[in-house]
Amino acid sequence: MTYFEDQEDAWYANDCKGNIEDYDPFDADSWPTAQQHTVGNRSRNLLALTKLVDFAAWAVCQGYRVEPTKGTYEVLRLRFVDAQSPILFFKRNRGEHATSYGEGTALVKQWINTRKHEKKGLQA
């Protein structure tokens, strides 16, 4: 086996997190973790399709605007007021959650945290 094949195996062993070039297959402590690469990560389990309307309404209150979707799998397209590129959410053939990438994942996490704090406030 070559060094690069070992490097690829190490990358797969860590669920393909980070850049494959950053892996030293002989030093597991050098492997990047998910916390180091959160911006570019995708999430397929944070935003349930049943909560898509609630999430879109919250995003509009945060300054985003909802745009018409393009393509078969796109379920939501958001754009911040002055942003150049939209934030996209997709639906797969199977599953009950929307897939988000990068900024979209961060936005969904922010929405979830807001909902948690609102529920705690109502219970107190």
Supply the number of helical segments. Answer: 3
CATH class of the largest domain: Alpha Beta
Q: Element order, helices and strands?
A: HEHEEEEH
Question: Structural class, from helix and strand content?
Answer: alpha+beta
Shape: extended
Number of strands: 5
Structure description:
The chain has two domains: 3-37, no CATH class; 42-123, TATA-Binding Protein, CATH 3.30.310. Helices cover 34% and strands 23% of the residues. It has helices spanning 3-13, 52-61, 103-123; strands spanning 42-48, 64-67, 74-80, 87-91, 97-101. Strands 1-5-4-3-2 form a five-stranded antiparallel β-sheet, with helices on one face. The N and C termini lie far apart (60 Å). Residues 34-39 have low confidence and may be disordered.
Topology:
Blueprint lengths: L2 H11 L28 E7 L3 H10 L2 E4 L6 E7 L6 E5 L5 E5 L1 H21 L1
Antiparallel strand pairs: 1-5, 2-3, 3-4, 4-5
Brief summary of the model shown:
The chain is of the alpha+beta class and 124 residues long. It has 3 helices and 5 strands.
